[in-house]
Amino acid sequence: MKKTAIYPGTFDPITYGHIDVIHKSLKIVDKVIVGISNGSQKNYLFSIDERIEIVNKALFSDLRFNKNKIKVVSFNSLTTELCRKYKSKIILRGLRAASDFEYEFQLAGMNRKLNNNIETIFLMSDVKNQIISSRLVKEIAELNGDIKKFTTKNTINSLKKKYE
Predict the structure, then answer these.
(1) Given this model, what pLDDT does residue 56 score?
(2) Per the residue annotation, which of 57, 96, 138, 158 is the catalytic one?
(3) pTM reported for the whole predicted model
């Protein structure tokens, strides 16, 4: 039986930390649904359509990931509903530092209460990617800093256009 995992996030924008989690997850599941959240709780730099395009370009143009193993979708529902839609019993979450764990642990517990058939798998990005956050990448880009170590070529181009 094929295992599908849901990797939810805002991906505003996608970073090498996110990509690291996707890469590692493909070693343990057959398919990853990258669920780009369009919830109203955040102030996004990029629209949902822009984020979908940026993630697709990063994964499939810049890095040449296998399109049969990754699907990029938007959602504005509970992650557990996205799991139901794609018949997944796995939620992937990336951890950068110990400070992430408390929030992620609480989120995993709430998702488990919503659907006790769903397991959350935490994946650590490599040490070189653990400091990267979308927020910091945006700040550096806005101030014309070099973000080549943090994200892909197409994502950098999208950020440059946004801040012109």
Answers:
(1) 98
(2) 96
(3) 0.95
